[in-house]
Write a structure and sequence with these properties.
The complex is a heterodimer of chains A (about 160) and B (about 280). Helices cover about 35% and strands about 30% of the residues of chain A. Chain A is built from five helices and eight strands. Chain A has helices spanning about 5-10, 20-25, 110-120, 120-145, 150, and strands spanning about 30-35, 40, 50-55, 55-65, 70-75, 80, 95-100, 100-110. In chain A, the strands form two sheets. A four-stranded antiparallel beta sheet of chain A has the order 1-8-3-6. The radius of gyration of chain A is 17 Å and the shape is globular. Chain B is an alpha/beta fold and about 280 residues long. Helices cover about 20% and strands about 30% of the residues of chain B. Chain B has six helices and 16 strands. Chain B has helices at about 85-95, 130-140, 165-175, 220-230, 265, 275-280; strands at about 20-30, 35-40, 55-60, 65, 80-85, 100-105, 120-125, 150-155, 180-185, 185, 195, 210-215, 240, 260, 260-265, 270. Chain B has a seven-stranded mixed beta sheet with strand order 11-9-8-7-12-13-16, sandwiched between helices. Chain B has a six-stranded antiparallel beta sheet with strand order 4-3-6-1-2-5. The two termini of chain B are about 25 Å apart. The chains are: A alpha+beta (about 160), B alpha/beta (about 280). The interface of A and B includes residues 78, 144 and 153 of A.
Chain lengths: ~160, ~280
């Protein structure tokens, strides 16, 4: 069985971090598992941790009054769920639900924020990595707003 | 562009005179898309290369360029998958078995699927863009041992917009093809991925240097997909795109489909990214 140190080091989100930094992160981390249908978090709850997905698929849901619940994004292994832990007011904006059996490492947000406050280099490193995740999700959302497949005339 | 034999209409035939084909089967793929099977009334069939198109339409209504979506080894059975987006396509979608449609072609340059033999193949489709790619997948699947890893990455608006559901399952289960599907949005009953089709590329395992990529979908989608493929290391000259422009004659006479120095109907519709890169971002085109 892999240690938390090994799990974090092998995950793409933490790729390239040195052993000392990963050791520091391990102090804020714990292994978690979710069964299909279980929620990692729900909209409005405090964003007190984020999830490094090792296995399985997580759906980000939003309830639309009169239209039911819609899946707006999914996150698979190798990616992370959640960035509201980094930005005030630290509340989740969507629901996160396990679509399949999910194994993840949960990272305590307050613990990590405190470490980032103490160590600006770590804070910058984390900010860069979260910014990359945010950048890709924002680009994806923007392109999907165009509803390209709904207007194409190929074929 | 490719070593694959490009099929042409019979020599001596007037390229602007349609041949009558009878609809033998009509299958609804989605709420707005229909697949028609047709046979030539003259019994001659229609040989084609994957990626080629015909000018198709009901007599007296009009004709539109539609890519062939059937099996390239079955020239006796012409298959077209058509989305209802206007007057002519609506009339085509409404054609029932027994109806007669006019067909000119096949026209254009295809994917050149054989050029991928010996290497990996990445096929990226968006929306109805899977229809022009289906013959290439069928061609590769029929000689699967000649190719390395084969990926079909398919993005659609919703699960209800996905085409060829049975094919996707068969390609994955029987042809050793890695099929990944992603939709823009979904209800909670959907257990697949939600997001942009480009998100499927990083997790697909292939050797970029020996990969040939075929991409078809809305032009903006193709731009982003091509950029992602180049990002992961696929050379630009090994990324092929199917371009769409307003084609009328199909034989390079009228110039309606001119795209800078290219006539899409005869030089394309399949082009390499290297050829299209200067054109795709040009706002006046």
């Amino acid at each position: 069985m892999q240690s938390l140190q090994e799990l974090l080091k092998a995950h793409p989100f933490f790729e390239g971090l040195d052993d000392a930094t990963v050791s520091m992160l391990v102090g804020c981390a714990q292994n978690v598992h979710f069964r299909p249908g279980e929620h990692l978090f729900r909209e409005g709850e405090p964003a007190d941790r984020f999830f490094v997905v090792r296995r399985g698929r997580v759906a980000l849901d939003v309830h639309v009054p009169g239209r039911g619940t819609a899946v707006i994004d999914t996150v698979d292994e190798g990616d992370v769920v959640g960035w509201s832990w980094l930005v005030p007011p630290y509340h989740w904006f969507f629901d996160a639900r396990a679509v399949q059996e999910v194994s993840a490492v949960a990272v305590d947000a307050l613990c990590l924020r405190n470490k980032c406050d103490e160590d600006a280099r770590l804070g910058y490193e984390m900010m860069q990595r979260v910014a990359q995740v945010m950048y890709h999700r924002l680009q994806s959302a923007r392109v999907r707003l165009l509803d390209l497949y709904g207007t194409d005339r190929v074929g | 562009m490719s070593a694959e034999a490009t099929a042409r209409p019979a020599a001596g035939a007037d390229p602007l005179v349609p041949r009558p084909f009878r609809v033998t089967d009509s299958r609804r793929e989605t709420y707005d898309t229909v697949t028609l099977e047709l046979e030539a009334l003259d019994g001659g069939g229609l040989a084609f290369a994957p990626g080629q198109f015909t000018m198709l339409g009901p007599f007296g209504v009009g004709e539109v360029p539609i890519s062939i979506s059937g099996h390239p080894d079955r020239p006796d059975r012409l298959v077209h998958t058509v989305r209802d987006v206007g007057g002519v396509t609506r009339a085509i979608c409404a054609a029932e078995p027994g109806a007669v449609l006019g067909v000119r072609g096949p026209y254009g340059e295809g994917w050149g699927a054989w050029d991928a033999a010996g290497g990996d193949v990445v096929i990226v489709a968006g929306g109805i863009g899977l229809a022009p790619l289906r013959p290439a997948v069928l061609k590769v699947a029929a000689a699967r041992e000649r190719f390395g890893a084969v990926h079909v990455l398919y993005g659609a608006r919703t699960a209800d917009d996905l085409l060829f559901g049975a094919d996707l399952a068969t390609w994955a289960s029987e042809a050793d093809i890695h099929v990944a599907v992603i939709v823009d949005r979904a209800p909670t009953s959907w257990v697949g991925r939600v997001g942009l089709v480009t998100e499927l590329i990083p997790s697909a395992r292939f050797d970029p240097a020996r990969t040939l990529a075929f991409v078809c979908g809305p032009e903006l989608m193709m731009r982003y997909v091509a950029a992602e493929l180049v990002d992961v290391g696929v050379p630009g000259e090994r990324v092929r795109l199917s371009m769409e422009r307003n084609m009328r004659c199909g034989v390079g006479l009228c110039g309606h489909c001119q795209l800078r120095e290219f006539l899409v109907c005869v030089d394309g519709p399949v082009f390499s990214l290297a050829e299209m890169l200067p054109v795709m971002g040009a706002r006046e085109l």
